[in-house]
Structures
1.
Amino acid sequence: MLLVIALLAAVLLEGAVQELRTARGDVAGARAEAAAGSALTNLLASRPDSALLARPRGTTSTATAVAGAETTTVTLQSLGNGAFRALSTARVWSAGVRADASALGFLRIVPDSAGPPGSLRYRHLPGWWWAQLP
């Protein structure tokens, strides 16, 4: 009877350890998705530089931010006529688990009517403009 109880305790403990590993992966994945989405939202809220409008189609610019165990990279690719493809990627380490996530958005640089004269802002393109990437 003692052997059966010991075997049952070992099986239950192994199940609990597997659940803990799964939960750590879920937490890291959620943090990575939040970081990628936040980076794209921060880009949309920022003011663009007018030099971006002069870039030829296909050129890219990249910015990377590191905060603790979180690395976020935003890449802007010119599509021409003031339109841009924005890709934000995030890598997060949480409890020894690494998770990666990306978010893709399409933006256009337009004059900002609410700001000072000559100021610009990003505007998301209508339709399917933002998506989480697996």
2.
Amino acid sequence: MKRNAISLILTFFLSLLLIGCGEEKQFFLSTTDYDLDAETSQTIRGVKIGDDSDAFLAAYKDYPILTSIGDGDYLTIPAEDIPFDTALTTILPSFFVDGTALHLDSFCEENNIEKEGLLAFLTNEDYLSAHSVVYRYLVFSWEDGVITDIRSEAMDYNRDGSYYQPSSESADNLEEG
């Protein structure tokens, strides 16, 4: 599971670097939005396996959504353009610093960080010794316009940081180590 998380995190960071620090939506999911009902795998917003894109978009269209069509790379696609009738995966990602959702635009500005330096800043040992940094994401698998699986995953950089090395190494190289 950690290897999948590493791959997802690397993909997310690459997507963030492509969209930059200034073009993010203003709305955030809370930490409780990432909780799933243990019995039904239903999200706190009422989305469950078997739901269609209307239910998903009613709950999440205002939040950043990363989409992988087939087994392709994760891309930022406008919610109304996501081809839900194909096999795809959507991810709702958020960073939480000290328990608060991170607004990347403000964070970059407040810390005078260029988009290329964001990942290194968040994973720096000095920063992690003073702050908790957790990456949380909901993963929705789709087939023929219907949700077939929902997972809630997280990576606590203060605890799991040894599994991630902020460099240009590929996910394949990280999995070997």
3.
Amino acid sequence: MEIENVEKLHEMGYGLKNAKTTLSQDIKFNVAKVKIEGSTGEILNLPRWIGKIIADNKLGELDSPDMVTELKQALSKEKMVGEYQVSTLDPHFYIKLKQHMRTLQRDDFNHIESMLLELFRMRRGKLVKLADSTKLNSDLYNKLTVEESVFFKTIYDNSKNFETQIRSNLNEQSSN
């Protein structure tokens, strides 16, 4: 499965997860048999996509993780774990970060993007090395984002196929 498809699927799933939404005014919705009622100041646990609509329409505020802090922490941890290990990232880390980045002004966006690219390049390099020597096990899988898992498997499979192609004629030569 391509990373883009996996990412879209998980982005939809992330949008379905509940998130706290603090209402800034009384609301009462009944759309397609989905009923939502709440009073000013009330905190509702709603699917993230509904909370986003409420926030976009200035009816409340969606509780979102501080992705800038999470990015800084991830970058710091990645630098500390060493060359042949990866730190643990939330499976939806890149999805959440990209959603957050869509809301930023140009200067903030550029700063966050440069940190993201530094983290990405570090992890990509480590994953290529690991995928060339190790099969994806549950310990490693639990440290990767959904996109990184697809990338790892692709590198691993391509590396094994390349090795098979190189070694394929060797057995015929040694039997002569």
